[in-house]
Amino acid sequence: MLSISNLHASIGEKEILRGLNLEINAGEVHAIMGPNGAGKSTLASVLAGREDYDVTSGSVVFDGKDLLDMAPEERAAEGIFLAFQYPIEIPGVSTTNFLKTALNEIRKYRGQDSLDAVQFLKLMKEKMKLVNIDQSLLSRSLNEGFSGGEKKRNEIFQMAMLEPKLAILDETDSGLDIDALRIVADGVNKLRSPERATIVVTHYQRLLDYIVPDYVHVLYKGRIVKSGPKELALELEEKGYDWIKAEAEAI
Amino acid sequence: MTPSYASYNDFKEQLLASFRDNEERMNGERKSPLHQLRRSALKQFEQLGFPTIRHEEWKYSNVNSLIKENFALDTASSLTAEDLVPLEIPNLEGNILYFVNGIYHPELSRIVSPSEQVQITSFADSIKADTEFMGAHFARYADYQDSAFTALNTAMASDGVVVRVPANTTVDQPIILRFITDARISNITSQPRNLVVIGKNAEVMMAESYRTLGENSSFVNVVTEIVLDRDARMQYYKVLNETAKAYHIGTTQVHQADNSHFYSASITLNGQFVRNNLNIVLNGQHAEAFMYGLYMPNGRQHVDNHTLVDHAMPNSYSNELYKGILDDNSTGVFNGKIFVRPDAQKTNAYQSCKNVVMSPGASMNTKPQLEIYADDVKCSHGTTTGQLNDEALFYMRSRGIPKDEARTLLLYAFSQDVLSQIKIKPIREYLEGVVREKLTK
């Protein structure tokens, strides 16, 4: 589904991704771990199309198409979703209105008819249950004055509504208490399917207790230096990142 | 017919000559106190002259191009009801008064409120027939000593509206004043003058809108005086969706007694050169004033909003929010003055001005001015001028919303803080439509 090869990306003069390779198939959950500054969030941003980054070489192919050639909105319409580490506050635009616009723009891109108000509300009700989100939150300005937990839950709700093929969760666990974490993870798990893939970017193993990955990758200095099964996350939790750093530097 | 004086090279001389000419045709009324007042206003205008950018209040608004245009002082127009159809605001009901080139046209207007609720008369009739009332109110609030344009209007105004709301009355239909400049044949100027006197515990909604018809330039110099007696309430909206060749200078002067509430929204969507002055004197305890503003110049348009709140008595409250979206090579000015007098303890005054500049060629000048002479007050002010939030745009795009649509959605939401304050639904919907259209262009 997603094929990243030799990806180099920089912000300004600073190169952050330095030859990253990754293959993801439908149905899989991949965890990307690594110390601070390794490039985890950069990878998430580059995949979603954030314009602050310059991709200097390499390629990203998503479902046979060149992802790097697409605007962020086209990537979304093709089925990429980024759950933000710090969701942005959008004053004056309610979650409902925002999602209705987004969903219908995506449908337009795919040549589908717009959902009318009734269909949209029905879909919304269905997905609200999935992430245990309250109607009153959805009528308010998007993310404005939301608590950390509400913002993250809202991200997962948006994901549920847009039903992406590839979801990228960028540090979704940061700032969440254990109850909120469980609700968020629960929502993600309910959305798992053989047609969809998930990338979980996280610093800690904690989230992976709830969203169990098929593969764990360690990102360090802009490259994946180690990959392994889910047990690798436990090892990292126990031993920290220093041994990985030492291994990587030795090469 | 009034001679047009278009042959005068100097606009000021042209205006002075017109005044003298009118005066010569007067009989007994020349000696009346009202006419003496107009004479003194004219003298003041003559002395002050048009302001230059050296004048502190006009630093960023240059009227040079305005006074160099040749305007006819002609009030005649062949406008018919049919010509007005395209200008109608859908679903708008209430007292709708049309003024063409500053002159009231009863045949185009309709007054639906019963006279027990509100007396709506033309300024021209009132100044002839009701000299006592006009003597007590006309030019008693809007100061013409320091303002050339108010002085000019005070001297020259021939028509407009006079609204009187008796005590303990709610006017259930809004009063809509539509000032149409018929510039289909030549450049036209007019000097409308309005007076609104609201009795104790009475309530009214009023809107002023300005439109020019035709390709030529227009210049409207309007003064509206509003007096709220104690416990009175007013919703007041000023709407400018003008042509690209329209000049507008307007002063709304508000005088509030104890526990009166004044809510205003000043919306400027289009116009070549617009200056809105909103001056409020809170001359009563627990008087409250709410001021909202929205301006969206593009092209080479210029919009200047000057507000002044004078807290003259203790325990009064004012709250102000002006928002601007500036595109292309447009310029905007916001000057907000809050004046708290020594006696006005326990004043609460809040002011905020937020602007989004969409293009490198556009610019905004903001100047909050607080002059506080009392010690137990709460005042705050803040201005921001910036670009559209890139993070917000990216966030929206990452959900599948195309860039232009995301931009429109964000700016529309930005404008809603002001537009949602307008309680006359057809006007709000009309404005929302114009804003949306302007944003998607």
UniProtKB/TrEMBL annotation, chain A:
CDD domains: ABC_FeS_Assembly (cd03217). Pfam families: ABC_tran (PF00005). Residues 2-246 form the ABC transporter domain. GO terms for cellular component: cytoplasm. Keywords: ATP-binding, Nucleotide-binding. The keyword Transferase does not apply. GO terms for molecular function: ATP binding; ATP hydrolysis activity. The keyword ATP-binding applies. Signal peptide: none annotated. NCBIfam families: sufC. Belongs to the ABC transporter superfamily. Ycf16 family. This is Iron-regulated ABC transporter ATPase subunit SufC. It comes from Spirosoma fluviale.
From TrEMBL, chain B:
SUPFAM superfamilies: Stabilizer of iron transporter SufD. This is Iron-regulated ABC transporter permease protein SufD. GO terms for biological process: iron-sulfur cluster assembly. InterPro entries: Fe-S_cluster_assembly_SufBD (IPR055346), SUF_FeS_clus_asmbl_SufBD_core (IPR000825), SUF_FeS_clus_asmbl_SufBD_sf (IPR037284), SUF_FeS_clus_asmbl_SufD (IPR011542), SufBD_N (IPR045595). NCBIfam families: sufD. Residues 12-175 form the SUF system FeS cluster assembly SufBD N-terminal domain. Belongs to the iron-sulfur cluster assembly SufBD family. It comes from Spirosoma fluviale. Residues 187-414 form the SUF system FeS cluster assembly SufBD core domain.
